[in-house]
Design brief:
The structure holds 2 protein chains of 2 kinds. Helices cover about 55% and strands about 15% of the residues of chain A. Chain A is built from 9 helices and 7 strands; from the N terminus they run αααααααααβββββββ. In chain A, α4 packs antiparallel against α5 and α5 runs antiparallel to α6. The longest helix of chain A has 28 residues. Chain A is globular, with a radius of gyration of 24 Å. The two termini of chain A are about 40 Å apart. By secondary structure, chain B is of the alpha+beta class. Chain B has 4 domains: about 110 residues, Immunoglobulin-like, CATH 2.60.40.740; about 130 residues, Immunoglobulin-like, CATH 2.60.40; about 140 residues, Immunoglobulin-like (Sandwich), CATH 2.60.40; about 110 residues, Four Helix Bundle (Hemerythrin (Met), subunit A), CATH 1.20.120. The chains are: A alpha+beta, B alpha+beta. Chains A and B meet through α2, α4, α5, α6 and α8 of A and α3 and α4 of B.
Chain lengths: ~260, ~625
Amino acid sequence: MIRLLALLPLLVSSVAFADDPLRAVHTRATELAARGECAEALVAYDELARAGVEDPDVAYDRALCHAQLGELGRAIVWLERAMRLAPRDPEIREALARAEAKVRDARESEHHGEPLAPEATLFGTLTSGMPASTLTILALVFDVLAFAALGFLFVTRNERVRIGLGLVGSFSFVFLAAMLFGLGERLEWFEEGRLAVVVAPEVTLRAGPDERAPGRRIVREGDRLRVLGRRRDYAEVRLPDDQRGYVRADQIEILQPDGSD
Amino acid sequence: MPFARTSPRTPRPTARARARLGLSIALIFALLPARAALAAPQVEVKMSARPEIVSVGDQVQLEIRVDALGGRIDRVELPDLGAFSILSHRRSSPVRFQFGLRSAAQVEATEIHQFTLRAELPGEHRLAAPVAMVEGERYEGTPVTIRVEGDPRGAPDVRSSEPPDDDPVSTPLDDVFDARAFLRAKVDRTEVYVGEQITLEIEYYSRLRGSPRFSKEPSTDGFWVHDLLDPNRPPPERREIVRGVPFQVYTVKRVAAFPLRAGKLDIGAATLEIVATTAFGFAQGEKLVRHAKPVTITVKPLPNGTPSRALVGQFDLRANIDRRTLRVGEAATLEVVVEGRGHVRDLELGLPEIRGLRVLAPETETSTRIQNGRLHGRRVTRFLIIAEQPGTFRIPGFSVPTFDPETETSQRLTSNAVVIHVAGDDGAIPDEPPIASEPDELEPPASDSEELGVLRGRAELRRRSSALADRGTFWALLLAPPVVLALAFGFGALARRRRKERGRRERERRHQRLLDEARAKRREGDAKGLYAALASSIHAALEELLGESTRGLTHAEIAQKLAAVGAPNELVTRTIEELEGLDFARFAAESTHAEEMDRAMLRITAILDRLDALAKGGRA
């Protein structure tokens, strides 16, 4: 027992400094990125991602590295991820807008159409400035408020209190619904499949999961689509205009990896 | 002649001698107090201050003097000097001897305390009278009042606690103040543009002797920083009165910080450890830890239209070449200098390919200097240009975008184009128009990443966590309030039902008890008791049905209430008749007949059943 107590500070310190190796990797990634050695920096960023780091600043820096390498599609993916983690960060928002503008300019110069993107929904837009965690907490708060007001409404006899409870309950239900819809939008509850971005310059949308399957359409870097499933090396996708098909899985990247916000 | 024997003559005091003796004794006793008075020391206790009206920070000479003639000074009790700093204290106690012509030598003892004080707090400070203990006796001097006025000269080394309006922004005093020592972060401004300089100072306010050491350096995440303090020339310390407490203030950190990104950034959080020491530098063993609270800076992005790679500040750009005429194979150095107030960052300049000239990779040299607390940067880029073909070559001017946060204007600095003449082996320069490179102006290369933003380099390294809303806990918590509400309603309804059931059973038991009582009276042949019990049964049933006591009601009122709860007229009439009959029967002789009692019981039981049915909500 005494030995265990003696080891306690060591255990505590080892837990406290468990981040140090990651910190070293991050420092290395930053130094490489600052020197313009972005390919090497991305290896370090991959290491951080494998270790479970999901940080808006790291995602942002990584996006800049992809942009440096001319991978605007991947830059958009990482900026989207950064923005989901820190929706109120103006710099990330601005960088994403610039990346999308560059994609648009590049397409214009090559006489391609506008990038494909799903239409923004009302609740998605209203709640876009809030992280999912905030939406979740607000939903729970309004849930408790709404049902508490309803419960008290049944037991109280005072007319003024009843009017107050009625108002509180009604507004709480409305806000609860808004938060849940916002969360649903953010976490893609209402949509079939998961949102992804095309990261290769040109990708053929095929009728089947095979190289020999007839091509239906070309999608380009920066286009957004929904991944409905996987078949071998192909992903079954649906475009924002509802056209379905298969693309090579390594040519797209899902915005929100499984189980993360 | 016989001699008469005589005894030796003893002189007998005569009356005159006796009187003389008595007078002498009386004189001795009379003089004793005077003698005692002559032996008591003469003590004088004096205290004086010079001057008595001073300003904060001024010095005061205070002297406390005790003169004791004919006595020894045991001790001197000095007044409290808490409102002053004691700069020096000297104590002297000369002893002198006095010799008189008719008296013995007398000792004169003196004790002098001389203080040099520094006034710290404004106000009237009354120094209590000093006390001297001489030969066990207490002697008190007179108090002295020293008036300390506020610093009329606005002495630079002593300031009040509240900074004037134009003072730099500091962390709120409430957050950090400590009467012994505290740290305070201070910035010269809280709203800046990306790349604009902020000067951060960490000041250490102390009333302790000790050696401070940063255990956590001031936080500067999101900033590029440059130290402004010269380690060989630390800034002068000063005195400052904060909340009435005089502190020695040391600037322990001063940096120029340049924000790298827009948003709200915190700067200046630091931890200082102080090991308290004695006046001779020995450690007292006490270690204090003080934290500086950060200051939040609002960093504005560069205005629209200003490239993110623009230099922020006031800069000059010029380009010079050391030789304008070369021969083939010779080299010239083109030097491009960007300098000015601000951070030159990693400005990269490049030359395009020019046919006939070979440009080697440039060398860069960056230097900084501090002027009036502002960082001035200088970046020199040197291109070595080797002439490979004869001809006249035009190297276009360089162009660097800048943003001046003071005037909030963006501009583009340009240098002049440079023309080089290259002679061939024969020394002749071909008479051709200069070969110019494209474009006409050379800008620092902008990569995609630069156009998107500036590398942050700092991160909390947050770990991946699944969204709370995707976990079962969220749904459990979300469903908890409606489930709790439904359970509350369910339990409430159940409780009400059980209460009702219990009431019903209670009623039945009571009816049964009254009927049993009536039957007992019948068996005993007690007609009066029987009819009274039956009347009670009817009243009990009516009370159950009407929810109020019917004992005090008239029969007409009972009839009215029964009709109101929906009892059929026939039942109302029968009930009232039975009640009247029961009242009557208790006093009528024929009512004592056994048959009559049995019939009454049957009738009343039937009425009770119908009233109970009505009470349960059924049909009577």
